Amino acid sequence: MFYYVKGPVAHVAPYLAVIDCGGVGYACHTTNNTLSYLKKGETAKLFTHLNVREDVMELYGFATENELNCFRLLIGVSGVGPKAALSILSATTPEGLAMSIITGDEKSLTVAQGIGKKIAQRIILELKDKLAKGQISASGGESYGGTGVTVIPQNKASEAAAALAVLGYSQAEVAVALKGVDVESLELEEIIRHALKRMVK
């Protein structure tokens, strides 16, 4: 329904930003990372997700599409609701989340408030399974890069590619972003960071 909202920041509070769009204040539940980009009175653009249940209609907003993609992946995991997803994305970046999933680092997820070992393990298992089955794509569809290619990380280059796929990039975009990056000498996080910088230019 809403792709993004854009306007002056009318109000900020923990996990909440109100964006004034033509005199209407849209209350967007959000992360600490997104809040760090916002300043009251300045124009902001938040990519949104509308969560509708029987008794609730809530809008969630994020400074980047990467963060929005990760939020949607997280709430797609059984037992993970919007509040838990915001908690995780407030404790880590989208890049950090992707690395945690690919490397199986459950401890980095339990740093988030309210996230225990069991739910962290479930997030890693379910999202790794989706990635292996080629269900994470740039459009959030049913195939990785539209090809259904199975991704099984075996080295830093393939781990970086898999992490970028978690963030919603297609095979073609990942190939271009990793071209020329020194995957042999750089650490995995640095490889991902360099690739992301190339994709946002």
Could you please describe the fold and organization of this structure?
This protein has 2 domains: 4-63, Beta Barrel (OB fold (Dihydrolipoamide Acetyltransferase, E2P)), CATH 2.40.50; 66-200, 5' to 3' exonuclease, C-terminal subdomain (DNA polymerase, domain 1), CATH 1.10.150.20. Helix 8 (171-178) packs across helix 9. Mean pLDDT is 84; it is low at 137-153. The chain is α+β, with helices and mostly antiparallel strands and 201 residues long. 44% of the residues lie in helices and 19% in strands. It has a 5-stranded mixed barrel.
List the helices and strands and how they pair.
Elements: E1 4-13, E2 16-21, E3 24-29, H1 32-35, E4 43-52, E5 57-62, H2 65-75, H3 82-91, H4 94-103, H5 106-110, H6 117-132, H7 156-166, H8 171-178, H9 188-200
Parallel strand pairs: 3-5
Antiparallel strand pairs: 1-2, 1-4, 2-3, 4-5
Can I get a quick summary?
The protein has two domains: 4-63, Nucleic acid-binding proteins (OB fold (Dihydrolipoamide Acetyltransferase, E2P)), CATH 2.40.50.140; 66-200, Orthogonal Bundle (DNA polymerase, domain 1), CATH 1.10.150.
Net shape: globular
By CATH, the superfamily of the largest domain comes out as 5' to 3' exonuclease, C-terminal subdomain
Which bin fits the share of residues in helices? 40-55%
| Spatial strand arrangement across the major sheet | 1-2-3-5-4
Q: Count up the domains.
A: 2
Largest sheet: 5 strands, mixed, barrel
**What is the strand tally?**
5
User: What is the rounded distance between the termini?
Assistant: 28 Å
CATH 2nd-level architecture of the largest domain: Orthogonal Bundle
Find the structural class using helix and strand composition: alpha+beta
Pick out the low-confidence regions.
137-153
Radius of gyration computed on alpha carbons: 17 Å
Tally of alpha and pi helices: 9
The CATH class of the largest domain turns out to be Mainly Alpha
CATH topology of the largest domain: DNA polymerase, domain 1
What percent strand? 15-25%
The residue-averaged pLDDT reads: 84
Please provide the ordered H/E string of secondary-structure elements: EEEHEEHHHHHHHH
Protein name: Holliday junction branch migration complex subunit RuvA
Family: Belongs to the RuvA family.
GO molecular function: ATP binding; four-way junction DNA binding; four-way junction helicase activity
Organism: Lawsonibacter faecis
